[in-house]
């Protein structure tokens, strides 16, 4: 391995998108998110809902992973997972998180911070049974984030459940469900030429959202 094998300082890209100003963004961050999300869905519909979810345990040790946004409204942004996963344990200890959307082709990203709460068991059950049968079986068979001896052992669990519930509705596991992040802060980032990016922060107060331009 050469001395510079891990040196990427020579890599460059230029941002060429049109900028954003205080006059062109919406005073409501949910409306601004919807506008950008709709554009992302037009450009890359198969990946627009991918988001990084960052959590931390009670010691403040962080962890991050990609999850999929499943629905959002004025109450917050929702995804589904196994409550016994690492993210589930983190959120049990520290119900604060951040989600990040990055849309490469649009040179845009949105950060959203806030408190996280569980969705109801009824909402989890409703969404669980909208999923493809294979996804239902995988969720029922896999104790997410827990060690397992081999992939074969995991596939055997799936096959056993497939036989057990042949022709029947697969019950939603009690350890599986949804979360909602209730926003307290948004940041909208638009890449600009020479790294002079546009950044706007929305902070929630007792009565409204305060908007500030941030230096890049």
TrEMBL record:
Lineage top rank: taxon: Bacteria
Record bears the keyword Ligase: no
Keyword check for Flavoprotein: yes
Domain Pyridoxine 5'-phosphate oxidase dimerisation C-terminal span(s) in chain numbering: 176-216
Gene Ontology process terms (BP): pyridoxine biosynthetic process
PROSITE patterns the UniProt entry points to: PYRIDOX_OXIDASE
Enzyme class: oxidoreductase
Entry's cofactor comment: Binds 1 FMN per subunit.
GO molecular function, one term: FMN binding
Entry EC no(s): 1.4.3.5
Pfam annotation, one family: PNP_phzG_C
Keywords in alphabetical order: Flavoprotein, FMN, Oxidoreductase, Pyridoxine biosynthesis
Residues bound to FMN: 65-70, 80-81, 87, 109, 144-145, 189, 199
Domain Pyridoxamine 5'-phosphate oxidase N-terminal: residue ranges: 47-160
Reactions performed catalytically: pyridoxine 5'-phosphate + O2 = pyridoxal 5'-phosphate + H2O2; pyridoxamine 5'-phosphate + O2 + H2O = pyridoxal 5'-phosphate + H2O2 + NH4(+)
Metabolic or biological pathway: Cofactor metabolism; pyridoxal 5'-phosphate salvage; pyridoxal 5'-phosphate from pyridoxine 5'-phosphate: step 1/1; Cofactor metabolism; pyridoxal 5'-phosphate salvage; pyridoxal 5'-phosphate from pyridoxamine 5'-phosphate: step 1/1
Cofactor(s) needed: FMN
Binding site for substrate: 12-15, 70, 127, 131, 135, 195-197
Subunit composition and interactions: Homodimer.
Function: Catalyzes the oxidation of either pyridoxine 5'-phosphate (PNP) or pyridoxamine 5'-phosphate (PMP) into pyridoxal 5'-phosphate (PLP).
HAMAP family cross-referenced by the UniProt entry: PdxH
Family to which this protein belongs: Belongs to the pyridoxamine 5'-phosphate oxidase family.
Listed name of the protein: Pyridoxine/pyridoxamine 5'-phosphate oxidase
Protein's gene: pdxH
């Amino acid at each position: 391995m050469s001395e510079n094998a891990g040196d990427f300082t020579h890599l460059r890209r230029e941002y060429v998108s049109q900028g954003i100003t205080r006059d062109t963004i919406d005073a409501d961050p949910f409306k601004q998110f919807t506008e950008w999300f709709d554009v992302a869905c037009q450009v890359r519909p198969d990946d627009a809902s991918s988001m990084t979810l960052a959590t931390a345990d009670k010691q403040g040790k962080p962890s991050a992973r990609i999850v999929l946004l499943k629905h959002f409204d004025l109450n917050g942004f929702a995804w589904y997972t196994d409550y016994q996963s690492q993210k589930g344990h983190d959120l049990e200890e520290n119900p604060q998180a951040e989600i990040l959307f990055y849309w490469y082709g649009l040179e845009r990203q949105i950060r959203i911070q806030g408190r996280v709460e569980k969705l109801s068991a009824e909402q989890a059950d409703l969404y669980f049974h909208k999923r493809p049968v294979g996804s239902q079986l995988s969720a029922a068979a896999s104790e997410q984030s827990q060690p397992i001896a081999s992939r074969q052992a995991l596939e055997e669990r799936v096959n056993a459940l497939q036989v057990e519930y042949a022709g029947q509705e697969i019950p939603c596991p009690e350890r599986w469900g949804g979360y909602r992040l209730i926003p307290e802060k948004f940041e909208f980032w638009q890449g600009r030429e020479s790294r002079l990016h546009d950044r706007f922060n929305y902070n929630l107060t007792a009565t409204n959202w305060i908007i500030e331009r941030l230096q890049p």
